[in-house]
Amino acid sequence: MGQAVTIQDVAKLAGVSPATVSRVINGNGVVARHLADRVRAAVDTLDYRPNAVARSLRRKSAAVWQLIISDIENPFFTSMVRGVEDVAHAAGCSVVLCNADEDLGKERRYIEVALAERMSGVILSPASEEESEVEPLLRRGIPVVTVDRTLAERPATVHSVVTDNHRGAQLATAELLGAGYKSVACITGPLRVTTAQGRLAGYRSALASAGVRPRPELVRVADYKETGGRDAMLSLLELADPPEAVFVANNRMTIGALAAARQRSVSIPGDLGLVGFDDMTWSALTCCPLTTIAQPTYDVGASAARLLLEGPPGPSRPAKTVVLQPTLVVRGSSRR
Amino acid sequence: MGQAVTIQDVAKLAGVSPATVSRVINGNGVVARHLADRVRAAVDTLDYRPNAVARSLRRKSAAVWQLIISDIENPFFTSMVRGVEDVAHAAGCSVVLCNADEDLGKERRYIEVALAERMSGVILSPASEEESEVEPLLRRGIPVVTVDRTLAERPATVHSVVTDNHRGAQLATAELLGAGYKSVACITGPLRVTTAQGRLAGYRSALASAGVRPRPELVRVADYKETGGRDAMLSLLELADPPEAVFVANNRMTIGALAAARQRSVSIPGDLGLVGFDDMTWSALTCCPLTTIAQPTYDVGASAARLLLEGPPGPSRPAKTVVLQPTLVVRGSSRR
DNA sequence: CTGAAAGCGCTAACAG
DNA sequence: CTGTTAGCGCTTTCAG
After folding, report:
1. CB atoms within 10 A of CB A157
2. pTM listed for this prediction
3. Min CA distance, B319 vs chain A (Å)?
4. Which residues in chain B are contacts of A57 at CB distance < 8 A?
5. Strand order in the sheet with B219-221
6. What is the spatial distance between Cα B185 and Cα B217, in angstroms, rounded to a whole number?
7. Would the pLDDT of A65 be above 60?
8. Distance CA B239, CA B257 (A)
9. Which of B204, B238, B198, B240 is nearest to B219 (CA)?
10. Average pLDDT value for residue range A242-269
11. Using one digit for the tens of pLDDT, what is the confidence trace for B196-226?
12. Fewer Cβ close by (within 10 Å): the C or N end of chain A?
């Protein structure tokens, strides 16, 4: 239960004041060469580690960023993490990751943690465009950047990074239409989330561009998880006039949709064309290799981190929205 | 940039001392009903949130656990997270997740963070049996539990939770042998990690039990990532006398191995039998549905969290190792 | 260039 | 039952 060694102990051993030790450690002020050397020696022999808690209390802010992701079981979010970490570490900040699990309650709880721990920045992929609450952070001067998704109320107060969901969905839908599938369904996510809205809108706009009459019964709003994708697909397949193809708006739902198709012995791409959103390491390995919309996940994270470093928007600096472009990866599932 | 409201402000508004406010908030000591009500009212009107940093400094420990996982892009680890979170939250602790990325340097860095932030516990899946350094934590009285993997040096000082890797690998290998594949290869992970050792040993022991002569050239040590799995598989396929089947010791390498087989037009299970370690949501969707060894991921996390709650081992309480059993999930890839 | 002193916001003795 | 007091370990004026 070793007592932690404090700055006092170091000061005593080096024969200087705590203030001098602090200056040496933080590179503030100017300290005579020989004293600085003595301090460093003392730090080494005592194996001193500054107490980050005391430092944060004094400085009124911790060198820690909080990254609140919507779903830790979704590889899109986890592969974004690396982008955030690399930029944060280069800037001397630690990143702590929290999993809100698409649950507004958990998200709120983690925002409380950020507040309580005086974190110096928060990167959030909000569980809801309308209901996610970032004001308390902003009021305390903690900068917020949203990733992947945006917030309805705060266009002027938070930066954000998104991919062009509308365009991604258009690419996906147009690919299926171009391959000769006459009717295309869409399984999107919860509409409280901006990505689900954008992907649905892009789907509709692609139908319109192609002069295809939209059939509302071909749209399903699911939960961005496997079971939701499966149920949505099963219900589409039960239609009297089932769709010839389907655009599935995220990776986890694509898994469910594929499972449903297999369960009903619907073969892809023969009986049904399919394009999924998010490319995965295993996308080429499914029974019929998957055509997908790939997002630049690392860049999404890295851009968000850079925006956080820029500091919050203000009167002179308007809030930025960085929009990254997705790409269509054509494999077998969209071409019969 | 709202000034944070402090316990002093609340005390003033409620007409009591800060100590009384503290007692009400923490439920310590006894406070007269009417005073407590006034305090709670003041807390509400001021929207007061205790400063967790100051509290940690005073209490010399934060109500935060750190979970250091080896690889955030590996679904095994991410699905373990939920188990940890649920137990932690029930115990009033927050969990921060850190990604060591199988890198001893990053792992060390995050251990420094735990030390600096005076976290109240650490759950770690060590990047190396020998080189991962937890002593500094133990010296400061911070309890450590290892998950998924164990440490060589500290059997008596840290609890751990693992799955029975030896048995899992035996099940996998025996399944392939039982299906009639004469020669079975093994692609395992970095041998500095105990899971990789255990799975290799289990593979060997299954060969021995079946009276199959081991062929050392059929063993590959890779990196637990897709590229390593792919390269290992390619090199196995190039052998003059290639194996009839392969046991791949983790999920990410299985993806690489499947990609390699496809690239070389090796068909599964006809040309090659395959069993992977870790079951995934998409395991049934690959070209040939995958036979896998499934681990109880949620329980691994939850058990680790419960061990952390129990407190560190001591003279009276020996270190525990909880061993959970994996199960064989038979699908197409192991039966020709 | 260096040290003394004050205080970040909270909790835990200790009095009353 | 409640208030006063004294720090937790650090950084940062302010003197010297």
Report:
1. 16
2. 0.91
3. 17
4. 51, 53-54, 57
5. B219-221, B184-188, B245-248, B273-277, B291-294, B327-329
6. 8
7. yes
8. 15
9. B204
10. 97
11. 999 999 999 999 999 999 999 999 999 999 9
12. N
